[in-house]
Amino acid sequence: MHIPDGILPVSVALSGYAAAGGMTWLSLNRINKKFKNPRELIPRASLLTAAFFVASLIHIPVPPTSVHLILSGLMGVILGWFAFPAILVGLFFQAVMFQHGGLTTMGINACLMGIPALLAGALFRTRRYFNAESKVTNGLLAFLGSFLAMGLGALTAALLLIYTIPAKLDVAAERAAIITLAGAHLPVALLEGVFTALVVLFLLRVKPELLEMEEK
Amino acid sequence: MIASYSTAIPESNLLSRWEVRHKLVGLLALIFSFSFIRELWLLPLVILVSVVIYRMSQLSLAYYWSRIRLPGLFLLMLALMLPFGAGSTVLARVGPLALKLEGSLSVLLIAVKFLCIFSLVLVLFAGTPLQKMVGALRSLGLPALLAEMLIFTNRYIYQLLTDLRQTQVAAGLRGFKGRSVKALKPLAYIVGTLLVRSHNQSERVFQAMTLRGYGEESLVLRAEQVRTFDRLALVATLLLAAGLVFLQFFFFPTS
Amino acid sequence: MSSVLSVMDLAYGYPGQAAVLKAISFKVRRGERVGLIGPNGAGKTTLFLLICGIVSAESGNIEISGCPVVKGRFNPTVGMVFQHTADQLICPTVREDIAFGPQNMNLPVAEVAGNVDRAAGATGITPLLDRVPHQLSSGEQRLVALAGVLAMQPELMILDEPTADLDMRYRRRLVGMLKGMDQKTMLTASHDLEFILEVCTRVIVLDQGVIQADGEPAKVMANRCLMEEHGLELPHSLTAAWHRHGTETDCS
User: Fold this and answer.
1) Does residue C132 belong to the interface with chain A, where contact is any CB pair within 8 Å?
2) Which residue of A has its CA nearest to B85?
């Protein structure tokens, strides 16, 4: 669900940048309000961003093949408002290091991952209304959040791609394409959900502070 | 497979010497004008501009090929699907599938734009060290927090990558294969461990940095001297970009 | 006695660099505890990676208990404790971490539990079994990492710089424990020469990719000229012996 260069019309790409700019402004605004000295948090946010970047390179087995996870839901859970800047930074390095390109679409891609990430984080933090220490609460919220985050991102990406392709698709082909893309992403979204839940349960036992950084 | 942020273009090259802010704005304008194109007749022009700039950069074709392989897969998928799915004019029939004109043409359009934009992205990154790139972005309005995150993240990605590989080797020596569904839980542990380790390290990094005065000075940005050449090159690329947009807009307004 | 490890004409070099190992040959017999010493960059860690089958040799071969080492194939007969324990400990509890290897060997559940208990007992960390490895002290982490390898009951155990991050107390504990494992075959690299002297039954000096000396630790390591020539020094406890021999000669 990484939209490459050259497919989307310029208007969509530029709107993506505008939206990403707005989201960045909102995130930084929230960060500045929330923390007295946000610069103190930069080393932590950056190291975790690097860790997420590296983690997304791990091959996750889905026999007979393997996939890479995006972990945007997990980023929302751990980084809170820092998730959006972190995703932008991650996309930048993806463009640079793999030279995926994706420069014109960086804005739209940041929104496709970042907004669902923030939602997944917010959903996870509703755990304070339940039993915040229980494994079931944490696991379930983490699963739901990242499953929905991945699903939402992939679905939006699919719709964007289908409706902006230069040639007109007929209705049947359109429906087939949407079903194919959605169907292909359903297992991946499930995997993201399960994996995120497993990591969150690990952190709950090993280093619960990592799940509480946004709650202070 | 990961390529480090390297500057493959020689320092003496014209594109390396082009002041980064001007280069960034100029090449980005061109990249966006490429993605604005919807008319097939303009594609040769797009290709010509890309080829000329890529040749000027002294980057080799082998370099292009080594970088395009991965992102090219997406293109390949599209090229296999779209010609059969989109459009109404049937060109040929391959078994139950019908190869359609409109779909094929849109693949052509997308592919050329993709490949040409890719060549400019390579030129942009391969001729600019990260520190300078971030400095330029900062002076073009990138928030300080993002700029610092870029520098910091870059510093630790390689170290964490080494840590991760080492952990995977250690797990492998204890019989972990990571090829079946059962591997999901240990992999989640490995990712969790990576997060915990980087969090712990960030605390040490922060303490060490505070001792050396972090929090006082901001990212030092030295403005580079802007020469006439930098401005001329910028004007030239902006005119090119505007020209492409103009051609698309005024001569083919309907396409 | 049969040899557990046999290295023959082993050579290795990283691409574009001078050879790290040049035609190394040695055998390790069952029950031997071999110390590997030499300056940084002598090729110790590379040798370990080769023995574990993480990288493959340019030429020569390695056999463990008569079976050739194949790159990338899981081989539970050799276990390695990494220099940085953080690279090795990944599970949320000590118990799970020690069980990680035996589980991957597909041992029956009861046997896994038995191995975990024995390994924890041998390393004296039974009280830590339900703790989180990441929250332990570096000394405790070292013991957990060791137990994780012991639980797989390897025929050959490799320890890379086992005392690097230990305080005196944990160092003594480790020394006592390793000396007590009479029947274990061990290969350990360390800059802690006193540790080698105390624990090992044999020492190999590796420098510039070549075995420079091989023999009884008290003899090899008492040779001041040899030691200094290879960037090492006389262990403190041997300087007295050196003085007694009255060989206060110039090495040059």
Assistant:
1) yes
2) A173
Q: Which residue in this structure is represented by tokens 């915990």?
A: B196
Q: Phi-psi category of C246—alpha, beta or left, where left has phi over 0 and alpha has psi -120 to 50?
A: left
Please check whether residue A54 touches C, CB under 8 A. Answer: no
Residue C241's pLDDT band (boundaries 50, 70, 90)?
low
How many CB contacts within 8 angstroms connect chain B with chain C? 55
Does the beta carbon of C90 lie under 8 angstroms from any beta carbon of chain A?
Answer: no
Q: How far is C90 from chain B (nearest CA, A)?
A: 6
User: Which of B174, B193, B203, B204 would you mutate first to test chain C, the one with the most C CBs within 10 A?
Assistant: B174
Instruction: Please give the full DSSP string across chain A, using - where no structure is assigned.
Output: ----TTSS-HHHHHHHHHHHHHHHHHHHHHHHHH-S-GGGGHHHHHHHHHHHHHHTTSPEEETTEEE----HHHHHHHHGGGHHHHHHHHHHHIIIII----STTHHHHHHHHHHHHHHHHHHHGGGGGS-TT-HHHHHHHHHHHHHHHHHHHHHHHHHHHHHH-SSPBPHHHHHHHHHHHHHHHHHHHHHHHHHHHHHHHHHHHH-THHHHTTT-
Subunits with 3+ C-beta pairs closer than 8 A to B: A, C
Q: Which of A169-178, C211-220, C223-232 has the lowest mean pLDDT?
A: A169-178
Structure-token pair, residue A61: 């087995």
Return all residues near B116 (Cβ < 8 A) that are at least 6 apart.
A6, B34, B46, B47, B49, B50
Of A177, A202, A209, the CB nearest to B188: A202
Minimum CA–CA partner of A202 in chain C: C92
Q: pLDDT tens track of chain A, all 216 residues? A: 577 777 788 888 889 999 999 999 999 999 988 888 888 888 889 999 999 999 988 888 877 777 888 899 999 999 999 999 999 999 998 887 666 667 888 999 999 999 999 999 999 999 888 887 888 889 999 999 999 999 988 888 888 887 777 666 667 777 777 777 778 888 889 999 999 999 999 999 999 988 887 765
pLDDT in tens, B104-144: 888 888 889 889 988 998 888 888 888 888 888 888 888 88
Of B103, B109, B157, the CB nearest to A93: B157
The pLDDT score that the predictor gives to residue A168 is: 64
Q: Is the pLDDT of residue C247 over 60?
A: no
Beta bridge partners of C189: C36, C160
- Enter the tokens of residue C66: 């008569």
A163 touches chain C (CB under 8 A): no
| End-to-end CA gap in chain A | 33
How far is the alpha carbon of A31 from chain C, nearest alpha carbon, in Å? 29
Angle at which helices C138-150 and C94-104 cross, to 10°: 30
Note whether C132 contacts A205, CB cutoff 8 Å: yes
**A44 — contact with chain C (CB < 8 Å)?**
no
Q: How far is C232 from chain B (nearest CA, A)?
A: 28
**ipTM for the whole complex:** 0.90
pTM over 0.95: no
Contact (CB<8Å) C132/A206: yes
Of the candidates A62, A167, A206, the beta carbon closest to that of B86 is on A167
The per-residue DSSP string of B222-248 comes to PPPPPPHHHHHHHHHHHHHHHHHHHII
Pseudo-torsion of CA C160, C162, C165, C171, nearest 10°? -170
